[in-house]
Amino acid sequence: MFAPDLPPADLPPPGLRTVIEMNPMYLFRWEEPQQAFVLLYPEGVVKLNGPAGAILGAVDGERSVADIAALLSARYGDADLSSDVLEFMETAHAQGWIRTKS
Amino acid sequence: MPLWLVLELTYKCPLKCPWCNNPVDFDKYRNELTTEEWKAVLREGRRLGALQLGFSGGEPMLRPDLEELVGEADRLGYYTNLITSGVGLNPQRLAALKAAGLKQVQLSLQACDSELNAKLVGLDVWAHKIAIAREIKAQGFPMVLNVPVSRFNIDQTEALIELAEDLGVEYLEFANLQYYNWAMLNRSELLPTREQLARSEAAVRAARARLGRKMTIYFVIPDYYDGRPKACMNGWGAIHLTIAPDGTALPCQEARLIEGVDFPNVRDGGLDWIWKESPGFQKFRGDGWMKDPCRSCDERAKDFGGCRCQAFLFTGDAANADPVCSKSPHRHLIDAALAQAAERGDACRAPLQMRARQTEGM
After folding, report:
1. pTM, full prediction
2. Residue from the list B47, B104, B214 with its beta carbon closest to the beta carbon of A42
3. Among A13, A86, B82, B264, which residue's Cβ finds the most Cβ atoms within 10 Å?
């Protein structure tokens, strides 16, 4: 697997109200043999842990970071997840997996 | 789990690159797998958990069933990568591959001008490569532009970055040659000098800072200039599986050059047995096979002792440490090759031995 040393993202990182979409270069899907969500891209694979998979699974190009946090809080009965979700989105954005809209 | 499956559909290729990683006696292997045999490999690979699939060669465009195999692979859920010289690719076949589900194209380019490119690959195909690169982007594929780097083109690093920007590729890969098979035959002519490498690396660093996210530049170092070996294939039989044109299953594309290892063939056994149990794949798995200095080295879990092929080529024993490692008792052999490169400077003088069918008596 390639481990590119990537340059910093060009755009400012997302905030709570930023709407998030997937970078179309990455294919996100469940992989049965891995029992994990994965991101597939040219000549590369990222295996995601449970929370990362759940967050990216909620990205639909319309929801904001806060919307996604609220959705996951409701789904898993957790307290406010917004700081966790925001932190992950910052990482995902730096990796180029997601793009910010609006 | 073989996350990476590479199908070398054929060893045939119209180009004559003098660094080709196909065997020097490639012409000996003529009984290519049939369409149905390749499809069985695809099904069994997917059951083993393979995700990334490379269609390679030789030149995979020479297989008329490529579109059919891509379609089957896509249906099975692979992320499909086409690794091509671009020769044999045209807008119609590209559209058919897109329709079949192809996800990505890796196109090779050897120079930023037609003349040097023709000298390096033995055919005047530069203009076609550029045209097909634009067509690949026009049809909406993500694209890796792969530049095999040698003394001949390393001084074009900056110009190649500008060309890649102009083509709008997402990934530019400077693949410094790794010296096996044809590249080994031509090593004294191909190996760049340390000064050339330093200039090239500086150009890549500057471009990365300038380009940010627009384009990702991979820079595969020539391991001779490193004091530690590459973590070759992430370890033998760890995540990578190559199937050669005749069905031989290999832990890496070069592995069949190692003598004395019995590599299994998909015509003789299922992929599940090949991957999990065959002696060829067990041979250098884990670290039980290691000798000193690897056996007692605290970096053995990081680099797995380096490359088995390189150990075999230099020492005659694939279980020795990769000779590029500064801890290897054979490191002086690598240093001798570097000293020779330094002495020769960056001039390109001697004729290259181009990839060709071996003739009787050779």
Report:
1. 0.92
2. B104
3. B82
